[in-house]
């Protein structure tokens, strides 16, 4: 949590309303209020769970990797199989898998 701005009390109703409009409505910060101060805060970013990351990875593999795998299999069914093209697709698939792992990392334990 990071404090972006604060408005010390006592303050007028207009100052309070202007603070909330500027920092919450216009800039999207969370507003917290205590007896002494009104705070605009940037909450900590959401960290997805490993299960959420597993689901995102599975979806990405289905959309991005499986079509490459299917293409490789179709080429292997040809007689003769175009080995050079297959090798290029295998390298592309491996790079895509690594990119997905970086995009959806699991939590460090």
Description:
It is a single chain. The mean pLDDT is 93. A hairpin with a 3-residue loop joins strand 2 and strand 3. The protein has helices spanning 13-26, 50-77, 83-103, and strands at 2-8, 30-33, 37-42. The chain has a three-stranded antiparallel β-sheet, covered by helices on one side. The chain has 109 residues and is of the alpha+beta class. It is 58% helix and 16% strand. The longest helix has 28 residues, at 50-77. It is rod-shaped, with a radius of gyration of 26 Å.
Task: Please render the helix and strand layout as text.
Layout: E1 2-8, H1 13-26, E2 30-33, E3 37-42, H2 50-77, H3 83-103
Antiparallel strand pairs: 1-3, 2-3
Strand order of the largest sheet: 1-3-2
Q: Tell the overall outline.
A: rod-shaped
Uncertain residue ranges = none
Cα-to-Cα separation, first versus last residue: 22 Å
Q: What is the H-and-E element order?
A: EHEEHH
The strand count comes to 3
Largest sheet: 3 strands, antiparallel
Residues in helices, as a percent range:
55-70%
* CA radius of gyration: 26 Å
What is the helix tally? 3
């Amino acid at each position: 949590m990071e404090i972006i701005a604060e408005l010390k009390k006592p303050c007028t109703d207009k100052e309070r309303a202007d603070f909330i409009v500027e920092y919450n409505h216009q800039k999207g910060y969370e507003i917290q209020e205590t007896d002494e101060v009104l705070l605009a805060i940037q909450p900590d970013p959401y960290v997805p769970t490993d299960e959420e990351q597993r689901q995102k990875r599975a979806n990405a593999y289905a959309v991005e990797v499986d079509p490459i795998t299917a293409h490789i299999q179709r080429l292997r069914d040809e007689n003769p199989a175009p080995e050079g093209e297959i090798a290029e697709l295998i390298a592309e698939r491996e790079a895509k898998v690594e990119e997905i792992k970086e995009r959806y990392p699991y939590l460090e334990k």
